[in-house]
Amino acid sequence: MARSLGTWTLALDGSASAEKSLIGGKAWSLARMRELGLQVPPAFVVTTRACTEYLRQGAEPAELAAELAAGIAWLEAQTGRRFGGGSQPLLVSVRSGAAISMPGMMDTVLNLGIDDATEAALAAECGDPAFAKDTHRRFLELYATIVLRGTAPELDRAATPAQWREQIATAAGAMIPATAVEQLQAAVRAVFESWNSRRAKRYRQHNNIPDDIGTAVTVQAMVFGNLDAHSGTGVLFTRNPLDGSPAPYGEYLPRAQGEDVVSGKFTPKPLDEMNKTVPDALAGLLAAARVLEAEHGDVQDIEFTVQQSKLWLLQSRAAKRAAPAALRIAVDLVDEKRIDIATALTRVTGEQLAALMNPRLADSDNGGKPPLASGEAACPGVGIGVVVTDSDEAERRAAAGEDVVLARPTTSPEDLHGMIAAKAIITEQGGSTSHAAVVSRSLGRPCVVGCGENALSQLKGRIVTVCGKEGRVHEGALPVIKPDESSDPRLAQFMQWKRAADEQEERKGTP
């Protein structure tokens, strides 16, 4: 699975096993996919031990710089490309990856290694100067935000990279390092530091994740979904994460990179759209999805990129799922003889069981009255409260005992505290695999995304009822009813298993 490059780093070459606690979930999934013969860009990983050492000392271990160089040399040998120069430049992504999944909570830098010279080389190699310039701009914007911790200015696409760097230096109060090696070292430090960001701490607190396990950092050769019309990026769930139905579910954004999907600033297309431009990549993706679900015995959340019709897999992890999906998937996998009852009982949390018994709308159509807003259903459930458009305000008012609904243009990791405080979440932009959708399912918050421009101005200050199942936002506090366990055969079956297991445990504890 991995080969040591030193004390703190491992090459993900499939040569030896490595614990998820050491290399993190992202690197572990890359190594396992490689072992399964799936297409994965080469990568090496900086271990969680290096992170905890950095956070303890306030500086990276002395050997780490040399080990990063060794890792880059290994990537160069694997790809035939050169980092920081050459006619075929190597660009890399630098991504966080804790042993326990924390989707959207920590930092990622893409396209690292590009400068004016490598932009020109990339343009010459691909025959597309616009692609190379777009890739350069993307790197500068992410680096300014993640590593320099500044507010990245809106970069004028017609400007030159030198002008972009000047804009960033003025806005962030710091310069982007001149060499790719220095950029890489600073990016790794930034990912380490994101472990202790406000949002990451709040997520760990909410999900009872230990503070001392740290994050690994995966450094991976870039593949480019923004290259041409036969390139793109997306996310596939092997089953529907909203209701658990056993069919692939996901989205694809042509000529884009992964951050475009997650940010919610663009609305992706259904996966079937891939048949129009990259049918072989879609067929390969669906085949890989079947392999990965069978391998892990659970529904998978798969990130992928297509570059010039070739499929590359970037991650596979157990999918965050809404309560109805958790129930159906657990029961269905038992019926399919993929897992046993004891395992199924661990797949639905107490919080999800409680959510299944939460009130539902007495009349989902609200007597035929048109909703105030509608969009894509991203997490089922009903949430009632006053609409606020600022996460700090949502947290403050919720702490004072008020029920609030958080509405944002899109959400980012900086909105986590407001999302936790809210009864429901609404966004103007984004699809069902955006940050808002994924985190809402993780938190069990009803969510409607993609409600369109001006939704915030129309909703702010109103008391609304959000129906995450139908993708609607209704005016006022609508009547609700409490569901009956007997009305859902899967819930009745699951509760029968749970009661039997609880009785068995009680008998074990009886002298």
Automatic annotation (TrEMBL):
Pfam families named in the record: PEP-utilizers (PF00391), PPDK_N (PF01326)
Coiled-coil stretches: none
Keywords: Kinase, Pyruvate, Transferase
Transferase is among the record's keywords: yes
Residue ranges of every copy of the Pyruvate phosphate dikinase AMP/ATP-binding domain listed in the record: 21-59, 62-269
Domain PEP-utilising enzyme mobile: 402-471
InterPro entries (UniProt xref): ATP_grasp_subdomain_1 (IPR013815), PEP-util_enz_mobile_dom (IPR008279), PEP_util_AS (IPR018274), Phosphohistidine_dom_sf (IPR036637), PPDK_AMP/ATP-bd (IPR002192), Pyruvate_phosphate_dikinase (IPR010121)
GO molecular function: ATP binding; kinase activity; pyruvate, phosphate dikinase activity
Gene3D superfamilies per UniProt: ATP-grasp fold, A domain, ATP-grasp fold, B domain, Phosphohistidine domain, Pyruvate Phosphate Dikinase, domain 2
Segments traversing the membrane: none
Alphabetical list of PROSITE patterns matching this protein: PEP_ENZYMES_PHOS_SITE
Protein's UniProt name: Pyruvate,orthophosphate dikinase
Protein source organism: Panacagrimonas perspica
Lineage: Bacteria, Pseudomonadati, Pseudomonadota, Gammaproteobacteria, Nevskiales
